[in-house]
TrEMBL record:
UniProt keyword terms in alphabetical order: Cell membrane, Membrane, Transmembrane, Transmembrane helix, Transport
Superkingdom as given in the UniProt entry: Bacteria
Protein name: Putative permease
Pfam families reported for this sequence: Xan_ur_permease
Membrane topology: Multi-pass membrane protein
Source species of the chain: Peptoniphilus duerdenii ATCC BAA-1640
GO annotation, cellular component aspect: plasma membrane
GO MF: purine nucleobase transmembrane transporter activity
Amino acid sequence: MSSLEKIFKLKEHNTTVKTEMVAGVTTFMTMAYILAVNPNILGATGMDSGAVFTATAIASMIGCVFMAILANYPFALAPGMGLNAFFAYTVVLKMGYSYETALTAVFIEGIIFILLSITNVREAIFNAIPINLKGAVSVGIGLFIAFIGLQNSKIVISGPTLVSIFSLDGFNAVNQVEGVVATFNNVGITVLLAIIGVLITSILVIKNVKGNILIGILITWILGIICQVTGVYVPEPALGMFNLIPDFSNGLSIPSLAPTFFKFNFHEILSLEFFVVVFSFLFVDMFDTIGTLIGVSTKAKMLDKDGKLENIRGALLADSFATVAGAMLGTSTVTTFVESASGVSEGGRTGLTAITTGVLFLLSLFLAPIFLAIPAFATAPALIVVGFYMFTNAVHIDFDDFSEAIPSYICIASMPFFYSISEGISMGVISYVFVNLLTGKTKKITPLMYILALLFTLKYVFL
C-alpha cells in the first residue's frame, strides 16, 4: 500500500486505495458498453468484430495506464463514441475509403496530436474555434449517433420520404433477400425490444443508477435471449438476425488481433480529401477530449483559481499516445470518456482509479463470447442515450446572438442530414466565417478560421 501511496500521492489528494479502486470499478461499469458497441459499429466496415473487441479492450487499458503515469488523473480512456461512428459511417461507408486507410488517418491524427500536445499549437487551435461552434459539434455528433442507433435497431428504415418508421412491409420492400422474408419473429420483435431498451435505459439514467447504459444493454439482450428460448425470436442470419446465446465452444479464448493489427494503407495520404479526414478526426478528438477533461476536472474540483487544469499536457499526451496505439491495434480514435465523472463522483482523485479501470478492461478480454453475442438491437439504446448526453451541450450555445446561433444550427443539422460529422464541421466553419464576414463582425473571426474556411470551400469546389 505504501508503494501505491508513493506513486499516486493518495494522502495529498485526500483519498485511499479502497476509494480509488471502488471509483475505478464504477467508471468501468459506466463505460464497459463500448466493448459491445465498438465491434458492432466498426464491424459495419468489414472489420473483424472479434479483433475489434480485443483492440478496444487493450487500447482502453493502454490509455488508462498512460493517463495514470503521465497525469495521475482519475480519467479513463476508450475508443470514443462519435469518433467510431465517423470512422465507420462517414470515412468508410460514405466516402468510400477502406478501413485500412481510415486506421491510417487515425494513426496520423494521433501523431499530430502528440506534436500539438507538447507545444502551444493545440491551445492556439482550440482558442481559434468559437465556443458556440465547439458546442454545436458535440450536439451534432449526438444527433448523428442517435440516428445511427435508430437505424441499427431498424426503428428507422428507408422509405418514400428517405426515412420512415419501421413496418414489416416497408422493411421487406427495401431489404429483399431471396427466399427470406422479415416477420415479427425475426426483425419485428428486435425493433420492439430496442424500443423497450431505450425506455429501460432512460429510466436507469433518470434514477441515476451506476452503470445505467451497460445495464440497459444487458437487460435488453437478456430479454432477447428469453424471446429466443421461448420461440418468440427466431434467428435469421440472412437478415442480420443472429443467435443471441454466447458461444463458449472455444472456451474463454481471446479473439485474435491479426485481422486488424497494423493494417495501414499510406497510398492515399497526400490527397486533399484525406487531409480533411485527418483534420476532422483531429478536430473532434481535440475538442471532445478538452471538453471532457474540463468538465470532469471541474466536478472533481481539480481546476486552479484561473480555471486551468494543472497537468493538462500530460492528460492530452495520454490521449494521443493511446490513439496511436489503438490505430496500430485496429480501432478508432481513443479518447477520454465523460463517464469518468462517475468514478470521480465516487471519490476517485488519482491515477489509481484509471489503473483499476484499465485492469478491468484487460480482464474483460476473457469475456469475449459474451460481449460479441450482444446484438445491434441491444446496443442501439446505448447509442440513442449517449446521443442525448451529447445533445445537452446545446444549452451552452448562445441562441440570442444569431451570428453565433445560425452557423451552430447549420453545423448541428448538417451532421445527421448529410450523414457525416466532417461535413457538419465544414459547414459550421464556412457558414461562421461567411455570416460574420458579410455582416461586418470581422473582429470575431480568427486568422485560423479564415484558413479553415478557405480549405473547406476549396474541398467542395475541387472534390
